[in-house]
Amino acid sequence: MKVKFPIIIVNYKTYSEATGKRAIKLSKTADEVSKETGVAIGVVPQLADIASVCDVVSIPVFSQHVDPILPGSSTGHVLLESVKEAGAIGTLINHAEKQLKLCAIENIISRTREAEMVSVVCTCNAAVSGAAASLKPDIISLEPPELIGTGIPVSQSKPDAVTEMVALVKHVNPSAVTLCGAGITKGEDVAAALKLGTVGVLVASGIVKAKDPRKVLMDFSEAISAAM
Amino acid sequence: MKVKFPIIIVNYKTYSEATGKRAIKLSKTADEVSKETGVAIGVVPQLADIASVCDVVSIPVFSQHVDPILPGSSTGHVLLESVKEAGAIGTLINHAEKQLKLCAIENIISRTREAEMVSVVCTCNAAVSGAAASLKPDIISLEPPELIGTGIPVSQSKPDAVTEMVALVKHVNPSAVTLCGAGITKGEDVAAALKLGTVGVLVASGIVKAKDPRKVLMDFSEAISAAM
Amino acid sequence: MKVKFPIIIVNYKTYSEATGKRAIKLSKTADEVSKETGVAIGVVPQLADIASVCDVVSIPVFSQHVDPILPGSSTGHVLLESVKEAGAIGTLINHAEKQLKLCAIENIISRTREAEMVSVVCTCNAAVSGAAASLKPDIISLEPPELIGTGIPVSQSKPDAVTEMVALVKHVNPSAVTLCGAGITKGEDVAAALKLGTVGVLVASGIVKAKDPRKVLMDFSEAISAAM
Amino acid sequence: MKVKFPIIIVNYKTYSEATGKRAIKLSKTADEVSKETGVAIGVVPQLADIASVCDVVSIPVFSQHVDPILPGSSTGHVLLESVKEAGAIGTLINHAEKQLKLCAIENIISRTREAEMVSVVCTCNAAVSGAAASLKPDIISLEPPELIGTGIPVSQSKPDAVTEMVALVKHVNPSAVTLCGAGITKGEDVAAALKLGTVGVLVASGIVKAKDPRKVLMDFSEAISAAM
Predict the structure, then answer these.
(1) Is the predicted pLDDT of residue C1 greater than 70, yes or no?
(2) Given CB atoms, is C15 within the 8 Å cutoff of chain D?
(3) DSSP assignment string, B73-114
(4) Which residues of D touch A132 (CB under 8 A)?
(5) Cα–Cα distance between D203 and B166 in angstroms, integer?
(6) Any chain B CB within 8 A of the CB of A145?
């Protein structure tokens, strides 16, 4: 596997604060914090920024999305081979903001496996996490849609949902690991996530829109170091 | 306007032959042919390749698609600002393989105008070209879906459809210009397109999958030079 | 044309208050008010209710949507022929809650014309209304999405948007007529819509969720009678 | 459960041969054959035909699709409550021609369960069948997309895919049952399906486009009777 755990994965979404040059700057910060603390940090820039980000960091870089296509006539779609060649080592699949059809999810997981890339399937609840886990992705990330962007941490406000998801995924596919996300803004939210049995967090605005992203990344990393 | 006419715009789709390093190589070839012949050539690489291509060429680079979004929470979507910062000077909109809702097309045309980028709306027939033209894009490109990838040139097999489109666009919006595409593989197809009143062609497999793309680009460019 | 103007078109959406038996009851009310007042009223029930509603009323019944398909292998899609045979005399196209791709809109308008059905294209702003009008539908209905369901009447809060739409449609396609919708709850909103040059309103919650739909329909109809 | 097994479920798609009056005629034929032979037959007419079909038959009627929505503002969408009130006792979910996002599938299965309706999730391969089964639908129906409409029966040409699906579903959710479909045109195809462990077939053109649908339905029913 091309990533180690626990891990903090930072989704840049389409935030201005993490577009173009600012994506590169934030990625360098993440790279530095990861090196300083020894804690794994992955970043998920926009498609057009993957190559530039990969040029300047050595931490894992993920794509936000790939389409269920083979090379060919698919103008405007995202080809796995293209994000891989740009330097991504894995991809989010089925993020709440870019949901996919069931057969597409299965197809993309298979294709990431063949390409030796890391698949991170995002799910909206425990039942869906179980279904996703049965398709044998590497990572399942639970993000209750009602908490995304709220600052109400899933790991502290919905611990039972996370615990249920972790148990279900373990039952269905013991070789998959789990993350949780939504509302994660503090080290204690990350610590809570680990305590519930996940191997880390998928975070977006909590880092990207922070006044001082480095400080928050340090806070998250220290929470992970303390828990190990 | 950031492009000059007549122009050959080469859509790389998601072809293996134009992904990653091969996108860069093909773009350099297009750049060289354009400089040698003085004929405008634009290229449309995949999203993940835009930045790398822009680093090595000075011809116009377009995005294959942008989404009708503002900066924010749109994981996996394509933000205009992101492709612009990567170096694209314009974008395809509503390609037959990535069709968009009507309100989205209007929104994206407005946003490209504000961003001083070039909008190329793709359309499936003359009536739709007229509707698109009324939304004031810079360029309308007619591509009858039944001819895409066939090698049967629209400019020679459906001249009436092209003529009708050119007339309708001129009537609706005299400041827009027109292209045609689908099945274009030879210089004579390009010459025929110009004769029908377009300012060039949108071409994909005819160049990307050619044994010798440089030779075909030279053939196209010479047809344009001869017609000027 | 199978409808006369001015007209009040009532969209039942997927409201409980207008599903199944309650769709039939509301349709009978609309039918009665139309007969009593002589003012044209059309209703737009859900797909599964079209046949039952058509069995009991003689006012025009519209479909909420049809798909851009021909008879064949399109499980779960809405075939024009099927809603026509169920009794619908026309269809909404591109409602804000069921937006369509540009080529699909053109296709459906053509198919409604061939089937001698009435096409009502919904649009989000004046520019899009102009583009839609160029495709030669029978009716264009402007519904600014930000006002839908708010009770803030488009005809009184955004008169300029309506006037601009009416003028643009008249310029592009003098044989089309216009409606406006969003936030219409009172007779005076309907009167304002007519004054701006439309031939009526497309209304949903203002009727369907009214305590006494008959009373509101009477109020709307009287406003129309007074204006004629 | 509102259906008994084995069962033949006939999907009318959007075929002309099964639209409007012809849907009613075919449904009466299915009703008669079911009564004559004692074999369960279900029919899946288009949305606009559900109510009329339910008026004239007593066999189970299914919807081709429902949307993952609650009552409210969803013009043009298909509300579960609306097809239920029209008389449908269940619904197809995720047919190959109307595929759904993973979270939508989970949502619709939950809603059919609450509404005491029968859920039939269609899947493209064994792995996806397992994922679907984990969401606890009543019935999983495997239809390899490459065989749909070909007349090459899945039960005879891909027995291993069916066996694998049956085993996986049994493992994941022992209370679910399985169907298979695609290319089913003869009684022997139905017999083969039962032998592989399914409880019947989902069939479309094999019945709808048959010269004599009654004869083929009798042939299918006799194959089932012989196997019981």
Answers:
(1) no
(2) yes
(3) S-TT---HHHHHHHT-SEEEES-TTS--BHHHHHHHHHHHHH
(4) 102, 131
(5) 47
(6) no
Q: What gap in Å lies between CA B193 and CA A66, rounded to an integer?
A: 35
Domain locations in chain D as residue ranges: 7-227
pLDDT value at B1 more than 70: no
ω into C6 cis (within 30 of 0): yes
- Active-site residues of C, by number, are 95, 143
Confidence of residue D220 (pLDDT cuts 50, 70, 90): very high
- The chain-wide mean pLDDT, for chain B, equals 95
For the stretch C77-128, pLDDT in tens is 999 999 999 999 999 999 999 999 999 999 999 999 999 999 999 999 999 9
High-pLDDT (> 90) share of chain B, %: 90
Give this complex's ipTM: 0.96
The residue among D99, D131, D129 whose CA lies nearest residue D198 is D129
Question: Within an 8 Å CB–CB cutoff, is residue A94 touching chain D?
Answer: yes
CB–CB of B81 and A47 under 8 A?
no
Both tokens assigned to B184: 């274009």
Q: Does D102 contact A at CB distance below 8 Å?
A: yes
Q: Does B127 touch chain C (CB under 8 A)?
A: yes
What angle (nearest 5°) sits at the alpha carbon of residue A47, between those of residues A41 and A50? Answer: 50
The subunits that touch chain A, with at least 3 C-beta pairs less than 8 Å apart, are B, D
Instruction: State the smallest CA–CA distance between residue B133 and chain C in angstroms.
Output: 8
Of A100, A102, A104, the CB nearest to D131: A102
Q: Determine whether the interchain pair A46/B82 forms a contact, defined as Cβ–Cβ distance below 8 Å.
A: yes
Q: Give the long-range contacts of residues B29-35, CB within 8 A, separation 24 or more.
A: B29/B213, B29/B214, B29/B217, B30/B57, B30/B59, B30/B217, B31/B56, B31/B57, B31/B58, B31/B59, B32/B214, B33/B214, B33/B217, B33/B218, B33/B221, B34/B59, B34/B221
* β-pair partners for A91: A63, A119
Residue C128 is predicted with a pLDDT of: 96
pLDDT at position A1 is 59
- The answer to whether B156 and B163 have CB atoms below 8 angstroms apart is no
Instruction: Give domain B7-227's CATH superfamily.
Output: Aldolase class I (3.20.20.70)
More confident residue, A214 or B1: A214
Q: How far away is chain B from the Cα of A83, in angstroms, using its nearest Cα?
A: 6
Residue C31 host element (H or E): helix C21-37
